[in-house]
Specification:
By secondary structure, this protein is α+β, with helices and mostly antiparallel strands. Helix content is 45%, strand content 13%.
């Protein structure tokens, strides 16, 4: 069982990087005297920074929005600390930072999963099959970029809604190889590959719940027409309607 540790969160301005009265804001996490710092990608006026409350004193909408953002960061860092404790993980400042930034093992992304799968399947899958997985990867990247307006998502964000929205994107969007939309079985094949990769994520313990659990793959079955006796006889004779033999036709 982990012993009690001191834990603090502190916002501060990097005066070494200050320019024209504006300085970048950092969050400092301290656990048992050891620190980790996170750039919050925000800057504020040094003049209107309260060193006691660690918040902006500006009464403008920008100042209020900044303080709301800092409150959210503070709340998120507390949640990361609580998660690590709940998972019986060894809590350090760096571990909290990694959890917050999504860089620890608990927060793998969808494209990290796809990349891991494709690299590890090189010696397992046939080249043609692996090529199809790379095509599915291209559709996933296109969906993330054009539909979700992002480059990647955490696996923990995937849900049943993500799957059905991706399905509709495949059905209604342009095909990568042709201008017309994918047909039903083509859509199902891409979803089937994504489902297999999610099963891999489950085995790796990168996710706790399969987003496909309530989703059913529905392939369209095609009836193959049988040749008539007369058609079989034509094939056996090797004679086509234009007088050419099948052998001649294959050479033409």
């Amino acid at each position: 069982m982990q012993t009690s540790k001191t834990f603090t969160i502190h916002f501060w301005l990097s005066m070494a990087k200050a320019k024209d009265d504006f300085a970048p804001i950092y969050a400092r996490i301290t656990v048992d005297g050891k620190r980790a710092e996170i750039s919050l990608k925000r800057s504020t006026s040094v003049t209107y920074w309260d060193t006691r409350s660690k918040r902006s004193t500006l009464r403008t909408s920008d100042g209020k929005a900044l303080n709301v953002y800092l409150d959210q960061v503070y709340s998120d860092l507390l949640a990361c600390h609580k998660q690590l404790l709940g998972e019986s993980k060894y809590v350090t400042a760096q571990a909290i930072k990694a959890r917050y930034l999504g860089e620890d093992e608990q927060h793998k992304t969808l494209l990290q999963l796809v990349s891991y799968h494709n690299k590890n399947m090189v010696s397992v899958l046939k080249p043609g099959t692996l090529k199809n997985y790379f095509t599915t990867e291209r559709y996933i990247k296109r969906y993330l970029k054009h539909k979700l307006k992002t480059n990647d998502v955490f696996l923990k964000q995937l849900s049943y809604k993500f799957i059905i929205d991706f399905e509709q994107f495949l059905r209604n969007g342009k095909s990568i190889n042709r201008s017309q939309p994918l047909k039903n079985n083509g859509v199902m094949k891409h979803l089937e590959r994504l489902k297999k990769m999610m099963n891999l994520a489950l085995r790796l313990e990168w996710i706790e719940k399969d987003p496909f659990v309530r989703f059913s793959l529905k392939f369209t079955k095609h009836q193959r027409a049988f040749l008539s006796q007369s058609e079989l006889e034509v094939l056996e004779s090797g004679q086509l309607s234009n007088g050419l033999t099948i052998f001649d036709w294959t050479l033409s």
